[in-house]
Amino acid sequence: MQDKIHLVDDITGHRRMRRNRKADWTRRMVQENRLTVDDLIWPIFVIPGEGIVEPVASMPGVNRMSVDKAVEAAKEAADLGIPALATFPNIEMELRNETGSQILEANNLINRATAAIKKAVPNIGVITDVALDPFTSHGHDGILRGEEIVNDETVEQVVRAAILQADAGSDIIAPSEMMDGRIGAIRRGLDAAGHQNVGIMSYATKFASGYYGPYREAISTGGLLKGDKKSYYLDPANGTEALRDAALDVEEGADMLMVKPGLPYIDICWRMKEAFGLPVFAYQVSGEYAQIKAAGLNGWLDEEKVMLETLLCFKRAGCDGILTYFAMDVARHLAKHG
């Protein structure tokens, strides 16, 4: 029999990586990570009024919705199998003040939305944030005293807000204001109020990023912000500090950890999953979404392909799920194509 060994066989030692890539069925059989509808959390924006669906200009395909429309959207999301929503309010400017005190109103916009969604769609999770930026007149996530975002007073307020949000039916509190000690304080406050079953998804590593612009438009804080958020958000240069921050949140009782933004910090996703073993989530933020949408609308890339690829990257990096404005598009795609 003629020896058919090729030079390449000698070089590779008869190991050929392309064998497992030769056909669609083999590629599917050995695929290491898969994106499913169970990986998706859909962030939505809620505004006052009734019957309102208002496009966000810098986020094509994303709308601000009145509570009744948010309920309709929640029903559609649940029908597609999306496990949870994350809700963010855009309240009236006249209700915003230096301390963000509107967050302490039991019947405020975010709590009304939670109660309405949980009543109409009890099988979908609702995740709420206690950061003050949608409620302050200065656009910061905490209470501003002079030139300083005060830590301890802010923590006291977000604990009270967390209890009110849990009272309204929130399933998971996701504190994003990055104050020291907030996770432990919220856990103690929730437990003391009888909310032992309400989880905490910590924005464990929220970076002082340039990717938040469209979000700030969506909740009308962009023009309000005085200065920057570098005294409480993480420096984009610091990975080790991010892990230290996350470690404190784990010690204080966080049930889940989040990295925000997502793709620019995908290394942090992997490091957190390896270090702590808790469920890890990435927030594919507004700027990431807007980049893909803009390039897709201009024909510069295949929007659907890049959308799916970026979300799969989070899975490869160890994420258990992704908060993404693409959630409904992805869910529809998966329902159609599997």
UniProtKB/TrEMBL annotation:
> Per the record's keyword annotation, is Protease included, yes or no?
no
> Per its UniProt entry, what is the enzyme's top EC class, as one word?
lyase
Q: Which domain of life is it from?
A: Bacteria
Q: Name one GO biological process term.
A: protoporphyrinogen IX biosynthetic process
Query: Gene behind this chain?
Result: hemB
So where's the catalytic machinery, residue-wise? K206 (schiff-base intermediate with substrate), K260 (schiff-base intermediate with substrate)
Q: Subunit structure of this entry?
A: Homooctamer.
Q: What is its EC number?
A: 4.2.1.24
The UniProt entry's sequence similarity note says: Belongs to the ALAD family.
Catalysed reaction per UniProt?
A: 2 5-aminolevulinate = porphobilinogen + 2 H2O + H(+)
Kindly state one GO CC term assigned in the UniProt record: cytosol
| Protein's pathway | Porphyrin-containing compound metabolism; protoporphyrin-IX biosynthesis; coproporphyrinogen-III from 5-aminolevulinate: step 1/4
Which UniProt key words apply to this protein? Heme biosynthesis, Lyase, Porphyrin biosynthesis
Protein known as: Delta-aminolevulinic acid dehydratase
InterPro entries listed in its UniProt record: ALAD, ALAD_AS, Aldolase_TIM
Query: Is the keyword Aminoacyl-tRNA synthetase in the record?
Result: no
